[in-house]
């Protein structure tokens, strides 16, 4: 059986035809609000319209590279149609989450990621100076502005290899940031580099909703992107996050010179994790002057749409986040991204150190396309039981679950 979580923003949403394209399921109309349903497998799984061997809508972590390649190589219009079909099985196609990303510690990172302006390895070429960790109150005020502008998820990034490289005072300040912002009723995500199991546990206890740790690219291409860490290091951090009871946010960057098979390899790696990530960001490279990838041509919108559609088909219940590089896409490009399964964007005029779309533009786009904002703490159907604290000991899980319920 597949368990499908469906939620609506208003009591009347289920009757507005928003989910009319979803295939039938049993016993979800017992109240004015949509609830979980457990349909028969045949209710939600069907062969792909192009007679491919993979079933549309199946929740699997045993995808083969050949199957993911088959999905990725589907003619684009057919691929988008298949992805839109799967998207409507598990998601409200009009609902898109608005997130805000803030760099709380910019520059001076010891890592050697060739796409990143914050690496100290090319600070002379980029001219980016290392800054200190922001003060708690300044970050809190930024979160309040984001919430008042309509964001329901606040993400904080620090240019660290990991918290282990900084003093206890800075780490405690980050934990305080998490707790304060969680008190605003927002989802809270951080990207702080590699974590130990103990650090992940401390973030969970502070109230962290999600942790972002992108795989960037395929295992085979990863050594061309950085020399300061291994792919296994990334996977170990994701495992620590999952075991701590924090939602996993993991995706990659498209357009770093990788081949199509490397894009397939990235998506295959994500789709075959023990549980699918709750969030899968798909980033388009924003080439920054002074970095080794400064002359890399950006990927086309159709490249990103193909990756989003493949992610949607292979990870049906994950939130697919249309992330960096969106500034280069037209409104029509973005509409195809949403049709293909993207259901989250980052708003605000800056993403860490690169420019982003203005909020007013996004509000106009939402109005034009008939989109609505995903509220905070709407259940994430993907992932494992650990993301709700269910795998923790009862005495540990209860405070976390109470905090989620109160928020």
TrEMBL record:
Its cofactor is [2Fe-2S] cluster; [4Fe-4S] cluster. Keywords: 2Fe-2S, 4Fe-4S, Biotin biosynthesis, Iron, Iron-sulfur, Metal-binding, S-adenosyl-L-methionine, Transferase. Residues 94-326 form the Radical SAM core domain. The keyword Glycosyltransferase does not apply. It is an enzyme of class 2 (transferase). Pathway: Cofactor biosynthesis; biotin biosynthesis; biotin from 7,8-diaminononanoate: step 2/2. Residues 382-407 are annotated as: Disordered. Its EC number is 2.8.1.6. InterPro entries: Aldolase_TIM (IPR013785), BATS_dom (IPR010722), Biotin_synth/BioAB (IPR002684), Biotin_synthase (IPR024177), Elp3/MiaA/NifB-like_rSAM (IPR006638), rSAM (IPR007197), rSAM_sf (IPR058240). Residues 382-391 have a biased composition (Low complexity). PANTHER family: BIOTIN SYNTHASE (PTHR22976), BIOTIN SYNTHASE, MITOCHONDRIAL (PTHR22976:SF2). NCBIfam families: bioB. Belongs to the radical SAM superfamily. Biotin synthase family. This is biotin synthase.
């Amino acid at each position: 059986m597949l368990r499908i979580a469906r939620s609506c923003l208003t009591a009347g949403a289920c009757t507005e035809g928003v989910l009319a394209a979803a295939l039938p399921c049993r016993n979800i109309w017992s109240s004015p609000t949509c609830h979980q349903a457990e349909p028969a497998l045949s209710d939600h799984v069907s062969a792909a319209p192009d007679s491919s061997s993979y079933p549309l809508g199946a929740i699997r972590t045993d995808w083969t590279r050949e199957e993911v390649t088959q999905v990725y190589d589907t003619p684009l219009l057919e691929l988008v149609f298949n992805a839109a079909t799967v998207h409507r099985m598990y998601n409200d196609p009009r609902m898109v989450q608005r997130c805000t990303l803030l760099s709380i510690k910019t520059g001076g990172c010891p890592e050697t990621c060739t796409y990143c302006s914050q690496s100290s390895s090319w600070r002379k070429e980029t001219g980016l100076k290392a800054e200190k960790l922001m003060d708690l109150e300044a970050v809190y005020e930024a979160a309040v502005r984001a919430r008042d502008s309509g964001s329901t998820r606040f993400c904080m990034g620090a240019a660290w290899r990991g918290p282990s490289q900084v003093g206890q005072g800075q780490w405690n300040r980050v934990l305080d940031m998490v707790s304060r912002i969680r008190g605003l009723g927002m989802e809270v995500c951080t990207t702080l580099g590699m974590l130990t199991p103990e650090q992940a546990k401390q973030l969970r206890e502070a109230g962290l909703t999600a942790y972002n740790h992108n795989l960037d690219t395929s295992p085979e291409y990863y050594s061309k992107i950085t020399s300061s860490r291994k792919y296994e290091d990334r996977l170990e951090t994701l495992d620590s996050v999952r075991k701590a009871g924090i939602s996993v946010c993991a995706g990659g960057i498209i357009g770093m010179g990788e081949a199509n098979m490397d894009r397939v390899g990235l998506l295959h790696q994500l789709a075959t994790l023990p549980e699918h990530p709750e969030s899968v960001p798909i980033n388009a490279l924003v080439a920054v002057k002074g970095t080794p990838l400064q002359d890399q041509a950006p990927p086309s919108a159709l490249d990103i749409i193909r990756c989003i559609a493949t992610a949607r088909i292979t990870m049906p219940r994950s939130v697919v986040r249309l992330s960096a590089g969106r500034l280069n896409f037209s409104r029509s490009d973005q509409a195809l991204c949403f049709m293909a399964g993207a259901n989250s964007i980052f708003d605000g005029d800056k993403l860490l150190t690169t420019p982003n779309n203005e909020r007013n533009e996004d509000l106009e786009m939402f109005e034009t396309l008939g989109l609505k904002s995903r509220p905070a703490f709407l259940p994430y159907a993907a992932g494992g039981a650990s993301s709700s604290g269910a795998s923790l000991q009862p005495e540990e899980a209860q405070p976390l679950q109470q905090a989620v319920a109160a928020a």
